[in-house]
């Protein structure tokens, strides 16, 4: 099996994701990028890969004042007894501007953190 490199950087993130047409329980966001995300649901579910799901995201980073909505299409799933993890592709969505703003913010934060001088260590 060939390894496919992701075209967008993924950021580890926590947040609540509501996908009412897929699961009555909120999912937990694991990571997100400009092109996709990974969400863990607390129960076994079977998404329809031909269906586009509307999802409301409330991120822990609070970069946006209110939850934003993205349209997602399932690409893969991993089901265990404790729940289901699903990889989604982000489609053109009402919340795309919020997502791009979040990605820019996280990218800036990573760059800033990498160039900050480290304090001298004391022996």
N-to-C SSE string, H for helix and E for strand: EEEEEEEH
The H-level CATH homologous superfamily, spelled out, is predicted glycosyltransferase like domains
Share of helix among residues?
A: 10-25%
What is the number of beta strands?
Answer: 7
The low-pLDDT segments are: none
Structure overview:
The protein is of the alpha+beta class and 123 residues long. The chain has one domain (11-115): Beta Barrel (Thrombin, subunit H). Helices cover 16% and strands 38% of the residues. The protein is built from one helix and seven strands; from the N terminus they run E-E-E-E-E-E-E-H. The protein has a six-stranded antiparallel β-barrel with strand order 2-3-4-7-6-5. A hairpin with a 2-residue loop joins strand 6 and strand 7 (83-91). The longest helix has 20 residues, at 96-115. The model has no long low-confidence stretch (mean pLDDT 85).
């Amino acid at each position: 099996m060939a390894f496919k490199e992701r075209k967008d950087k993924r950021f580890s993130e926590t947040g609540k994701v509501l996908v009412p047409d897929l699961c009555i329980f909120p999912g937990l966001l694991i990571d997100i990028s400009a092109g996709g995300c990974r969400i863990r649901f607390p129960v076994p579910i079977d998404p329809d890969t031909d269906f586009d799901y509307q999802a409301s995201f409330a991120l822990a980073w609070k970069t946006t004042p209110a939850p934003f909505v993205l349209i997602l299409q399932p690409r893969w799933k991993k089901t265990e007894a404790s729940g289901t993890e699903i990889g989604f592709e982000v489609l053109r969505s009402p919340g795309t501007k919020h997502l791009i703003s979040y990605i820019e913010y996280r990218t800036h934060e990573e760059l800033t953190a990498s160039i900050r001088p480290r304090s001298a260590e004391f022996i």
